[in-house]
Write a structure and sequence with these properties.
Helices cover about 35% and strands about 20% of the residues. It has about 220 residues and is an alpha+beta fold. The chain is globular.
């Protein structure tokens, strides 16, 4: 009888443990946020409106909890700056989902990385950088949106890491086409990426060098 009691006790504990893990996974993005609250509240009204157009919704969720190493999943400008020179998996990213969506597919992800080089606007235009239907924007050092998804923005921002100094930061947005409202535009994506980048540049002390405007202009012609 004692052995049987121990057996059922162990089974019950296992069930609780499994259920608890499942619940924790669901709660990682349970809190509903407005467009102005996501990505550490970095979006101004124009960019928040752009995000609503991108998602076709006014409600979002963001990764919460911690990763396998105990680092926070949620985005903060301070943490993104602090971990800028970490390896890819260790950097702080802003990952957004549409509230209520159960697919597990993110709407968009914003990440930053230091870089020693950046594209030349002139040569990139000649080589069709980002595809023939991409659009470039006169902000930072070089900024463009591919035709269907994502956005890229390079800006001047000298930072120091364990492996040395780097003069630039590359901001990237990855967006899921099957989650994105087809009526949204590349300029909408750039507006969101620009605002989060402006906040990071300020945190890193390079806002003046970065030359990121308060509002994204129309794409450059030609």
């Amino acid at each position: 009888m004692k052995t049987r009691a121990l057996y059922w006790g162990a089974c019950a504990a296992l069930v609780v443990a499994i259920t608890g893990c499942s619940g924790d996974s669901d709660e990682r993005r349970e809190k509903t946020l407005s467009a102005s609250q996501v990505c550490d509240g970095t979006l101004t009204t124009p960019a928040a409106d752009a995000l609503e157009r991108i998602g076709g919704t006014a409600s979002f969720t963001e990764l919460d909890g911690t990763d396998g190493e105990g680092n926070p999943n949620s985005f903060s400008v301070e943490l993104a700056a602090k971990r800028l020179h970490s390896k890819l998996g260790g950097r702080n990213e802003c990952v957004l989902y549409k509230a209520g969506d159960q697919s597990g597919i993110y709407l968009l992800k914003v990440r930053f990385e230091p870089t020693e080089s950046r594209p030349s606007p002139e040569s990139s235009a000649k080589n069709g950088k980002g595809g023939d239907d991409s659009a470039s924007y006169p902000i930072g050092l070089y900024a463009y949106t591919p035709a269907d998804s994502g956005a890229y923005l390079y800006f001047a921002c000298p930072t120091k890491g364990p492996e040395g100094d780097t003069p630039y930061v590359m901001a990237s947005m990855f967006s899921s086409e099957n989650q994105t409202n087809p009526d949204s535009t590349g300029k909408d994506r750039m507006a969101v990426l620009n605002d989060v980048s402006r906040a990071l540049a300020k945190e890193l002390g390079c806002a003046a060098q970065a030359e990121l405007p308060a509002e994204v202009p129309d794409p450059a012609s030609g």
